Amino acid sequence: MDETPILVEQRAGYRVITLNRPQRLNAFTETMHQALKRALVEAENDPACRALLLTGAGRGFCAGQDLNDRLSQGGETPVLGGALEAYYNPLVRTLRELPFPVVAAVNGVAAGAGANIALACDIVLAAKSASFVQAFAKIGLVPDSGGTWILPRLIGPARARGLALTGEPLPAEKAEAWGLIWRMVDDGELMGEAHKLCMHFASGPTVGLALIKRGLDAAWDNDLDSQLDLEREFQREASLTPDYAEGVRAFLEKRAPVFTGRKAK
Ligand code: LHQ
Fold first, then answer.
1. Is the pTM value of this prediction over 0.90?
2. Which of 124, 125, 123, 19 lies closest to 64, judged by CA?
3. What is the position in ligand 1's atom list of the atom closest to the CA of 24?
4. Minimal-distance CA residue to ligand 1 atom 14
């Protein structure tokens, strides 16, 4: 089961990473973390990769940490912190910092760190049958993988507290209504929609899209003045790219732009 804990597929202009431990609802083991880390480094280093699709095999997206993997031979639970430092925190940072859009296709339950890893992606699409569970409190833990940071920002403090303290599952439909995710779609349409988005991004102005990600992330900590300064810098950087020139040319010539994603010379 664990020989290929993740699957990587190369498509034209983007990659698909599938968490692949379906019997355990794609819960994370150390081996899976290591494989995912390698796949993300390879995607980032490939100039032809301009978007990423993250999904899960089988009926779940990801059930967070594999709770069997955390038991010692004697069955004791270890003191935690090391796994976050070594794997979960770098993973969340990487997802947010990748220089192209990351689309999560949440095909089923996303629980514990699995939910917050999905929410760290730029665009979250969820199947109607999916749900998001801040399962941590049920086992005496606290939301990690950025959960305490992103939940109140996305859905406000009252709903963030409710989800984190009760561990109640949030169905996809409500997640969309609350603004936790971009969109819910019928189960049969999920992967088609996710691929469509990735194809769109794969022919997008990649440098500009990466700057949009960075600008929106920075906005959460900046006051208006600092954010205006940042927008000025990012706009300057975006305007140096060949894609900006192409975008304007295509608009004036009333045709679709052909973006290359290339950086400014
Ligand atoms: C699992 C798991 C799982 C192992 C389902 N592990 N087998 C970070 C740093 C270090 C350590 C600790 O944690 C963290 C971050 C975290 O992520 S903590 C939170 C860990 N995750 C959870 O507590 C979620 C546990 N799972 C569940 O609550 C349920 O399985 C959910 C709500 C996800 C789905 O429920 P059902 O749809 O009813 O499925 P199920 O419970 O029947 O699960 C199917 C199988 O998957 C089952 O195995 P079995 O052999 O009985 O078929 C589960 O034992 C297994 N599984 N989650 N995290």
1. yes
2. 19
3. 46
4. 65
